[in-house]
Amino acid sequence: LQVAHVPSQPTAGSESRRFTTKHSKKALKASLTLGILLGMFFVAWLPFFITNVTQAVCACVPAGFFDVLTWLGYCNSTMNPIIYPLFMRDFKRAMGKFLPCCRRSGEPRPSAISLSMRNSNSGARAATSLKNVL
């Protein structure tokens, strides 16, 4: 009496583990990116807000120090476009389509008409009439 071995059972388990591992890596990377962004936000803006409240209570903060903290917060805003492409491949690809420095050679730049048509869910008939207008 022989029992047939079903090979699909272990494969399904290993495939499920791979699926879980892949998604847990993505979740870990997303958490890391969010942690870095929030950490930088708090490091940049928390001193400003604390100083702002202190200034309202006692008026003892020098104007130059307050300006430095304000510009520290502004620098945080300039860091976001640098952080996003470093950690997010989809963001990097999207920016590469619009920035000439990041576009691959031979890859055409999308026109404003093609972008608006793609986003408006319009059909080919609307694209033809738009070309006639322009």
List key phrases describing it:
134 residues, mainly alpha, 78% helix
Write the layout of secondary structure elements.
Layout: H1 8-58, H2 63-87, H3 89-98, H4 112-120, H5 124-133
Helix pairs in contact: 1-2, 2-3
Number of helices: 5
Report the strand count.
0
N-end to C-end Cα span = 79 Å
Oligomer: single chain
Bin the helical content.
Answer: over 70%
Low-pLDDT runs: none
* Broad structural category: mainly alpha
* Strand residues, percent: under 5%
Query: What Rg, in angstroms, do the CA atoms define?
Result: 26 Å
**C-alpha geometry:** elongated
What's the main sheet like?
A: none
Question: Could you give the order of the helices and strands?
Answer: HHHHH
Overall pLDDT score: 74
Notes on the protein architecture:
With 134 residues, the chain is mainly alpha-helical. The protein has a domain at 23-96. 78% of the residues lie in helices and 0% in strands. It has five helices and no strands. The chain has helices at residues 8-58, 63-87, 89-98, 112-120, 124-133. α1 (8-58) runs antiparallel to α2 and α2 (63-87) packs across α3 (89-98). The radius of gyration is 26 Å and the shape is elongated.
Brief characterization of the structure:
With 134 residues, this protein is an all-alpha fold. The protein has helices spanning 8-58, 63-87, 89-98, 112-120, 124-133. Helices cover 78% and strands 0% of the residues.
